[in-house]
C-alpha cells in the first residue's frame, strides 16, 4: 500500500504534435524508464503510408531481421517483441533472457539447434609474416609497397621473430600514413560462424549479423570476405555469422548514412587479414573436413592469387609465360584450339625438333625414296602431336621447301601442261602437305605419279587446309584417304552423271529466279547460335518471339536422329529435344497436381523456428499440407517452441524433413506462390518425370510428335527440362538460306 | 517575361518534414531508432509491442534511466541530443544515437506520445522504504528462529 502512494503521479506522459512541440503533459504512474508509443506511422507522407500498408508483412519481416541483430548483441538486456493482430491474440515474435553471453542470445533467437552447428572464431593474429604472405594475406602491403616485398623476401631466410617485428612495423607505418599515431591496439573481435562441415551452413545469407563496436552494420567487404572463405570449404551454403569487431572509436566513421548501417574503417585491410587468417585456422582444425578438401583449397588459393604468395618469382614467370604465350599465339594463328599452356610449350619444343629435322629432309628431297621413308617415320610422330603443331608447321618449313623444290620439280610440273600459275602456287601447298606428312609414303614412286597426286592434293588443300588452317587429326586422316590412288581417278575426271530434262531445268531456273527476288526477311528473329554459352540469350529470344500459341501452329517436319523433332513455324526451322520437352511437360503436370502422401510421426518433432518463420508457416498451412507437412500449433507457447511437426511426406524412396520446411519457408518469404515446392520435392518430380517421358532413340509417329509440340503450349516454362537441358532451339531461317544462295 | 524567382530559405516546418522523411525510411528504421534509444538509456528490459504489424501501434517500453522534467521540451526537438555537444565528440562516440534527429523525425511522421519517469523522481524515498520493509521481514524471520 505504501508503495502505491509513493510512486503514483511520478511519471509524465507527453504528447507531441508533428513539429515536435509538446501539446499535452499528463501525470501518470509508471516504473522508472520510458515508453515511446507511435501510432499512425508515416501519416504525414501519404505515398510511404500506402506503400507501408501494402507491404506491411514484408516490412515487418525486415524489421525483425534488424531486431535480431539488437537481440544478439545486447548482453544483459532482456528484449521482448510481440505483435497483436486483430484476428488472433498476442503473438510473441522474439524474446531474449537478458543473458550475459552471446551464445545464450543466439539460442534464444534462433533455437538451440543453431547453436550446435556454430563455432567460435578466435582472433588469430598474424604472427608470422611468412605464413601471412603464403596465405595471400596483406595484399595491400604486397601490392602497394614495392619496398615491403623486398623486406619480405629477405625475411624468408631469417627466423620468424624478426619477421614479427617487421610486421608490426608495417602496421605502424601504414597507420602513420593514414594519419593515426595512436598506440596500436590489436583488433579484437568476438565471432561465431557455421561449421564448414557439409550441411552445417544455410541456404541463404539470412542469418548474418555484423557489428562494429557493438553497432549493427553492413561492412560489405567483411561480408564478402567471410562468405568467400566459407564457400571455399562449403561451396553450396552460406554460413551463420555473428561477428562483433572491437576497434578504437577514432578509426571508425559511423556518420555516413542516415540509418548508420554503413561504416567507414581506417584499418579495414588489417581487420580483413586477421579475420581471414582466423577463419582459415578455424576451419583447418575441423576434424570432420576431409584433408583433401583443405589441400584442394590451398591449390585454389595458389592459382587464384599467386601474385601474393610468391610475388617476384611468379611475376617474372608470368611475364615470361605471357611473352611465350603471345609468340605462340602468333605461330599458331588461326588455330582455335584452347589448350593448356603446358601443352603449348611442349609443342614448341616439338616444333623446333620437327622443323630442324625438316630442313634436313628438304635437303634429301632429291632422292624420293629416302624421303618417303622419312615421311613414314614422321607420320608416326605426328600421330602423337596435337593439332596445334600441325598448324604451326605451316609457317617456315613450307617456305623453305618451296625454294628447294622449285628447283627440283618445276620441270615435272610444267610437263603436266595445264596452266602453270596455279600449279606453281599449289606446288608449295603440296610440299606443305608432304612436309606435314599428310601424304602417305606410297605415293611417291616416280615423277609421273607425283604429278597426278599433286593435282589432287591441291584440291584437298584448298578445300580444307587453306580455309581452315586448324586441321584436326580427323581431317588429316581424311586427306590421306583421299590421296589414295584408287580415289585419284575419280577426282581427276570429276564426272558426275546427272539425269535431267529441259523442263526440270526450266523449273529449277524458275525457282531460282523467284528466290532471287525474295528480299531479305524484314527482321531476323533469331540470331543466337546453338551453343551452351549462349543458352540464356537463346531462351530470351525464344520467349520473346514464340508465344505459347505458336507451338500449336508449328508444323512437324519429321524426326531427326531418333531424338529430335524438327518443326517449322513460318520460315523458321526449330529443333526440339523430344525427351526434354516431354520431361518438362510431365514435370509441370506432376508439380501442379500431386499432393504428397504423408506419414504420421509417432512423436511430434519440435521445429525451433524463429517467430517470424512460425508466423509465415501459420499463414501458409495450405501449401505445407500440399507438400505433405502437417503441424501441431500451440500459439500460447514461447517463440521457437510453438510448432511441432506431425507428419512428413513420404514418396517411395524419398524421405523429407526439417530442412525442406526451412527451405519452403524461405521461398515463401521471398515470393509466395501457390506452387511452392522444396527443391528435393522438385528433384523427385524431375526424376519421375524423366522416367515417364519419351526416351531418346524412340521412333515417333507424326501424331506423337504433334502431341509433344502441343504439350509445350500448355506449360509455363517450356524452355528447359527440369534438369536444365534446353528443349527447343532455332535451327535456321529458310528465307535467309535462299537469300544466301542468291548472293553466291 | 522574367520568370526568375527569388531564392529564399525554406521555412522551418518544411525543412523539418523534408529531413524527417529522409531519416525514417521504413518500419525497421523506426523500430531501430527506438530500440537504440532504450539501449542508450541503459535499459535491461525492453518490451516491444506491435498492433497489426505496426500499422495501428508501435510501442517500445524500457526500464532505462528515463527523462527528467527539465528535458521534456528539448526531447522532441530536431538536433537536440544528450550524446554530444561538439563534433570532436563524434570520434569517441559509443552510444548508438548521436545526431538528435530520431525522435523529432518520428514526431514529424507519426503521432507520438512518451511516458517517462526519471530515476531521480522519488528514488530516495522509494529505496528507503524497501530497506525498511526488508529489515522488518528479516527481523520477523530472526525472531522466529
TrEMBL record, chain A:
<dbReference type="InterPro" id="IPR013507">
    <property type="entry name" value="DNA_mismatch_S5_2-like"/>
</dbReference>
<feature type="compositionally biased region" description="Low complexity">
    <location>
        <begin position="401"/>
        <end position="414"/>
    </location>
</feature>
<dbReference type="InterPro" id="IPR042120">
    <property type="entry name" value="MutL_C_dimsub"/>
</dbReference>
<feature type="region of interest" description="Disordered">
    <location>
        <begin position="401"/>
        <end position="421"/>
    </location>
</feature>
<dbReference type="InterPro" id="IPR020568">
    <property type="entry name" value="Ribosomal_Su5_D2-typ_SF"/>
</dbReference>
<dbReference type="GO" id="GO:0016887">
    <property type="term" value="F:ATP hydrolysis activity"/>
</dbReference>
<comment type="similarity">
    <text>Belongs to the DNA mismatch repair MutL/HexB family.</text>
</comment>
<dbReference type="InterPro" id="IPR038973">
    <property type="entry name" value="MutL/Mlh/Pms-like"/>
</dbReference>
<dbReference type="GO" id="GO:0006298">
    <property type="term" value="P:mismatch repair"/>
</dbReference>
<dbReference type="GO" id="GO:0030983">
    <property type="term" value="F:mismatched DNA binding"/>
</dbReference>
<dbReference type="GO" id="GO:0032389">
    <property type="term" value="C:MutLalpha complex"/>
</dbReference>
<dbReference type="InterPro" id="IPR042121">
    <property type="entry name" value="MutL_C_regsub"/>
</dbReference>
<feature type="domain" description="DNA mismatch repair protein S5">
    <location>
        <begin position="106"/>
        <end position="284"/>
    </location>
</feature>
<feature type="domain" description="MutL C-terminal dimerisation">
    <location>
        <begin position="556"/>
        <end position="700"/>
    </location>
</feature>
<dbReference type="Pfam" id="PF01119">
    <property type="entry name" value="DNA_mis_repair"/>
</dbReference>
<dbReference type="InterPro" id="IPR036890">
    <property type="entry name" value="HATPase_C_sf"/>
</dbReference>
<protein>
    <recommendedName>
        <fullName>Mismatch repair endonuclease PMS2</fullName>
    </recommendedName>
</protein>
<dbReference type="InterPro" id="IPR014790">
    <property type="entry name" value="MutL_C"/>
</dbReference>
<dbReference type="GO" id="GO:0140664">
    <property type="term" value="F:ATP-dependent DNA damage sensor activity"/>
</dbReference>
<keyword id="KW-0227">DNA damage</keyword>
<dbReference type="GO" id="GO:0005524">
    <property type="term" value="F:ATP binding"/>
</dbReference>
<dbReference type="Pfam" id="PF08676">
    <property type="entry name" value="MutL_C"/>
</dbReference>
TrEMBL record, chain B:
<dbReference type="GO" id="GO:0032389">
    <property type="term" value="C:MutLalpha complex"/>
</dbReference>
<dbReference type="Pfam" id="PF13589">
    <property type="entry name" value="HATPase_c_3"/>
</dbReference>
<comment type="similarity">
    <text>Belongs to the DNA mismatch repair MutL/HexB family.</text>
</comment>
<dbReference type="InterPro" id="IPR014762">
    <property type="entry name" value="DNA_mismatch_repair_CS"/>
</dbReference>
<dbReference type="InterPro" id="IPR036890">
    <property type="entry name" value="HATPase_C_sf"/>
</dbReference>
<dbReference type="GO" id="GO:0006298">
    <property type="term" value="P:mismatch repair"/>
</dbReference>
<dbReference type="GO" id="GO:0140664">
    <property type="term" value="F:ATP-dependent DNA damage sensor activity"/>
</dbReference>
<dbReference type="GO" id="GO:0016887">
    <property type="term" value="F:ATP hydrolysis activity"/>
</dbReference>
<dbReference type="InterPro" id="IPR038973">
    <property type="entry name" value="MutL/Mlh/Pms-like"/>
</dbReference>
<protein>
    <submittedName>
        <fullName>Uncharacterized protein</fullName>
    </submittedName>
</protein>
Amino acid at each position: 500500500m505504501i508503495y502505491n502512494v509513493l510512486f503514483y503521479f511520478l511519471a509524465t506522459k507527453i504528447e507531441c504534435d508533428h513539429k515536435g512541440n509538446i501539446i499535452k503533459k499528463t501525470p501518470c504512474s509508471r516504473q522508472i524508464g520510458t515508453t515511446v508509443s507511435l501510432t499512425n506511422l508515416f501519416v504525414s507522407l501519404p505515398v510511404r503510408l500506402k506503400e507501408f500498408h501494402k507491404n506491411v508483412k514484408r516490412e515487418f519481416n525486415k524489421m525483425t531481421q534488424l531486431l535480431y541483430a539488437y537481440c544478439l548483441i545486447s548482453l544483459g538486456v532482456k528484449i521482448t517483441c510481440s505483435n497483436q493482430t486483430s484476428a488472433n491474440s498476442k503473438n510473441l515474435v522474439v524474446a531474449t533472457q537478458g543473458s550475459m553471453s552471446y551464445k545464450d542470445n543466439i539460442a534464444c533467437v534462433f533455437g538451440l539447434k543453431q547453436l550446435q552447428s556454430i563455432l567460435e572464431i578466435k582472433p588469430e593474429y598474424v604472427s608470422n609474416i611468412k605464413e601471412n604472405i603464403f596465405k595471400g594475406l596483406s595484399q595491400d602491403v604486397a601490392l602497394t609497397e614495392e619496398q615491403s616485398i623486398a623486406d619480405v623476401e629477405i625475411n624468408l631466410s631469417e627466423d620468424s621473430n624478426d619477421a614479427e617485428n617487421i610486421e608490426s612495423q608495417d602496421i605502424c607505418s601504414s597507420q602513420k600514413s593514414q594519419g593515426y599515431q595512436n598506440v596500436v591496439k590489436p583488433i579484437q573481435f568476438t565471432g561465431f560462424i557455421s561449421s564448414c562441415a557439409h550441411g552445417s551452413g544455410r541456404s541463404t545469407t539470412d542469418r548474418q549479423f555484423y557489428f562494429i563496436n557493438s553497432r549493427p552494420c553492413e561492412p560489405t567487404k567483411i561480408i564478402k570476405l567471410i562468405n568467400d572463405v566459407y564457400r571455399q570449404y562449403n561451396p553450396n551454403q552460406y554460413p551463420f555469422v555473428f561477428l562483433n569487431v572491437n576497434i578504437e572509436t577514432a578509426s571508425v566513421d559511423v556518420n555516413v548514412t542516415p540509418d548508420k548501417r554503413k561504416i567507414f574503417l581506417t584499418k579495414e585491410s588489417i581487420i580483413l587479414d586477421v579475420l581471414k587468417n582466423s577463419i582459415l585456422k578455424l576451419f583447418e582444425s575441423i576434424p570432420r573436413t576431409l584433408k583433401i578438401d583443405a589441400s584442394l583449397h590451398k591449390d585454389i588459393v595458389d592459382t587464384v592469387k599467386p601474385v601474393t604468395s610468391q610475388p617476384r618469382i611468379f611475376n617474372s614467370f608470368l611475364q615470361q609465360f605471357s611473352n611465350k604465350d603471345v609468340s605462340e599465339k602468333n605461330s599458331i594463328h588461326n588455330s582455335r584450339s584452347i589448350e593448356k599452356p603446358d601443352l603449348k610449350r611442349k609443342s614448341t619444343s616439338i616444333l623446333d625438333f620437327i622443323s630442324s629435322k625438316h630442313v634436313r629432309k628438304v635437303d634429301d628431297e632429291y632422292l624420293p625414296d629416302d624421303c618417303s621413308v622419312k615421311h613414314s617415320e614422321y607420320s608416326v610422330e605426328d600421330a602423337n602431336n596435337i593439332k596445334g603443331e600441325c598448324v604451326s608447321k605451316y609457317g617456315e618449313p613450307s617456305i623453305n621447301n618451296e625454294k628447294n623444290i622449285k628447283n627440283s620439280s618445276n620441270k615435272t610440273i610444267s610437263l603436266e601442261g595445264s596452266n602453270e600459275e596455279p600449279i606453281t602456287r599449289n606446288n608449295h601447298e603440296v610440299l606443305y602437305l608432304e612436309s606435314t606428312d599428310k601424304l602417305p609414303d606410297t605415293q611417291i614412286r616416280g615423277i609421273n605419279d607425283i604429278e597426278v597426286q599433286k593435282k589432287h592434293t591441291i584440291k584437298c588443300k584448298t578445300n580444307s587446309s587453306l580455309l581452315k588452317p586448324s586441321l584436326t587429326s580427323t581431317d588429316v586422316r581424311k586427306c590421306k584417304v583421299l590421296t589414295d590412288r584408287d580415289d585419284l581417278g575419280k577426282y581427276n575426271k570429276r564426272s558426275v552423271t546427272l539425269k535431267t530434262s529441259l523442263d526440270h531445268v526450266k523449273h529449277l531456273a524458275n525457282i531460282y529466279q523467284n528466290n532471287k527476288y525474295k528480299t531479305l526477311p524484314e527482321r531476323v528473329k533469331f540470331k543466337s547460335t546453338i551453343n551452351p554459352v549462349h543458352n540464356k540469350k537463346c531462351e530470351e529470344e525464344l520467349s520473346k518471339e514464340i508465344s505459347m500459341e505458336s507451338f500449336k501452329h508449328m508444323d512437324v517436319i519429321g524426326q531427326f536422329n531418333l531424338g529430335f523433332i524438327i518443326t517449322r513455324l513460318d520460315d523458321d526451322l526449330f529443333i526440339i529435344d523430344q525427351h526434354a520437352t516431354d520431361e518438362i511437360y510431365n514435370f509441370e503436370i506432376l508439380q501442379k497436381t500431386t499432393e504428397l502422401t504423408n506419414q504420421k510421426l509417432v512423436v511430434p518433432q519440435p521445429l525451433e523456428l524463429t517467430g517470424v518463420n512460425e508466423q509465415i508457416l501459420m499463414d501458409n498451412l495450405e501449401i505445407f499440407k500440399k507438400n505433405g507437412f502437417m503441424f501441431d500449433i500451440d500459439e500460447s507457447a514461447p517463440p521457437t517452441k510453438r510448432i511441432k511437426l506431425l507428419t512428413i511426406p513420404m514418396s517411395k524412396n524419398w524421405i523429407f524433413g526439417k530442412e525442406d520446411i526451412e527451405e519452403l519457408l524461405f521461398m515463401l518469404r521471398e515470393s509466395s506462390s501457390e506452387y511452392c515446392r522444396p527443391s528435393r520435392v522438385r528433384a523427385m518430380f524431375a526424376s519421375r518425370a524423366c522416367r515417364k517421358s519419351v526416351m531418346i532413340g524412340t521412333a515417333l509417329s507424326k501424331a506423337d510428335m504433334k502431341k509433344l509440340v502441343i504439350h509445350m503450349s500448355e506449360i509455363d516454362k517450356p524452355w528447359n527440362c527440369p534438369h536444365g537441358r534446353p528443349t527447343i532451339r532455332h535451327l535456321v531461317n529458310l528465307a535467309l538460306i535462299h537469300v544466301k544462295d542468291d548472293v553466291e | 517575361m522574367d520568370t526568375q524567382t527569388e531564392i529564399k530559405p525554406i521555412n522551418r516546418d518544411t525543412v523539418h518534414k523534408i529531413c524527417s522523411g529522409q531519416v525514417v525510411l521504413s518500419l525497421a528504421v523506426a523500430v531501430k531508432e527506438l530500440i537504440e534509444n532504450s539501449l542508450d538509456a541503459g535499459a535491461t528490459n525492453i518490451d516491444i509491442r506491435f498492433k497489426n504489424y505496426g500499422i495501428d501501434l508501435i510501442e517500445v517500453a524500457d526500464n532505462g534511466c528515463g527523462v527528467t522534467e527539465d528535458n521534456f521540451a528539448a526531447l522532441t526537438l530536431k538536433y537536440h541530443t544528450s550524446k554530444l555537444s561538439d563534433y570532436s565528440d563524434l570520434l569517441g562516440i559509443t552510444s548508438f544515437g548521436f545526431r538528435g534527429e530520431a525522435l523529432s523525425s518520428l514526431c514529424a511522421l507519426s503521432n507520438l506520445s512518451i511516458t517517462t519517469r526519471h530515476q531521480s523522481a522519488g528514488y530516495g524515498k522509494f529505496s528507503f522504504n524497501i530497506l525498511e520493509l526488508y529489515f522488518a521481514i528479516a527481523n520477523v524471520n530472526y525472531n522466529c528462529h
